[in-house]
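In keeping with the milestone schedule agreed at the kick-off meeting, the structural modelling team has produced records for the first pair of proteins. Each record is given below as a sequence line and a structure-token line. The laboratory manager (R.T.) confirmed that both were archived under the project's standard naming scheme.
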Amino acid sequence: MSHILLCASASVAIYKACDLASKLTQAGHRVRTILTPNAARLVNPQIFEAVTGETAASSEWESDRRTPMDHIDNAKWAELVVVAPASADLVGRLAHGLAGDLVGTTLLAVPAGVPRLLCPAMNPVMLDHPAVARNLVRLVEDGWQLVEPGAGPHGVRRRRPRAPRGARRDLAAHPGGARAMTTSRAKRPRLHVVVTAGPTREYIDPVRYLSNESSGRMGFELAKAAARAGHRVTLIAGPVNLETPKDVARVDVVSARDMLAALKTAFADADALYMAAAVADFRPARKIAGKWKKKEEAPGTGGVSLELVENPDLLRTVARKKGHRRVIAFALETGDGERRAAAKLVKKNADWIVLNGASALNASESAVTVLDAAGVVWRSESRPKEETAARLVQLLETEPRR
């Protein structure tokens, strides 16, 4: 059972929203409805309450059972947002971040990573207007999934809206326009997505180990975003103190070799891999049985020194036999990053690579650059990792198989 927030605007197709709310409720979902003021003039919100058994509103002030914080409460409650029907006016307001009513304020408050479906419903001439097409492209770039309109009593939708010339290349719109805009949760396939996350630990003795500052948060946000998008997710996690995301199968590992063993098993029937873990490049040549005393020599070294050997290259090991599976690598660089990341992309046989800096290891935000074989796909300023993760999941859904 999902928590579905249904937002309806003033369109002749609003009668279909009533039917949609009823069918979703009959399917076992909880559906709350918010209407624009003009939509509430066409259909009384109480009709939605009658078919769903949940609250429906068009204003934050219309009933003493609601509070001025309804937009925040509903936004946090939602696990899926559906805007149906979406009028030209609402499409324009959403594209520009306007919050003049309860629908607008609520949708601005929805956390990044929550799937959002937009169902435009208007006269075909209006839908073909350049301004409406630009607004739809902007919404797709912001993470909305569009459900293409079909036939109606006022005309048949013949052409898909296309990106205007000069539209920037982005994850959600790349390589441009119609293909990305018609991807919907209902149409896209359910993928098996494997995500690695966190650091690995290479023990020197029973209490000391080699590791790094990775928090694992990016990998966990990726797993969460993929699960919310309806995919089957296997999360292979190094030692981190993070809660397992909902609907995610988690495998805990410690060392690089542990992670490789788990990765080979999970990747065997996977469709995609996000290699977000910060895997230790080296491990001690031998683990000391007891605690390594400060004044004692390390066994076999002739002094207080530590002999290291190279760990297996996890990404390269699995990606060289990827076949149709898609691989997204991560690169942490401190200088000449794009050139180094591009070289790693080729060397590791990845489809895309996400470049970030060392400051992102243990932070809640990061600035990233995504590259493929042709160059930069997307570049973002520092933003919350959950937003970046949602965009990276869209990469799988808007790009064809390689």
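The second protein of the pair:
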Amino acid sequence: MAIEKVKDYLRPFGFESRIQEFDVSSATVEMAALALNIEGKRIAKTLAFRYFDQTLLIVTAGDAKIDNSKFKSQFNLKARMLDAQETEDKVGHAVGGVCPFAINENCVVVLDISLKRFETVYPACGSSRSAIELNLEDLEKLSQSTQWVDVCKEWV
């Protein structure tokens, strides 16, 4: 199970015990916000894209949407999200629990600046009933992100 992979991944950093598991689904931004009793924009959603011969994971704020022109300018290709089966195969987590932790090889993680509005954010932990509260420094370290990018729109 992917959540067990995430727990194993976070254990050496001392973060495994901070994972929250819910009796209800947290598969969408709205559901996760309800489960956590927070604003949806503080959910750190992880989106999976085709990226040449790799998979690109972009972690954004819950209220942000990918801006196609910014994406193309940043990455020199058109934004094309993976479908559900490709996501599970290439990332190692099913849609609804995709996160930047304990991911398959050949994935590149970047963080969008839409997250920088918050002291802490809540990414999933490999299942559609989990999340963890992290500050941005810990998210950056634990996700092994390669850079901060500006590829989103519609967030304030």
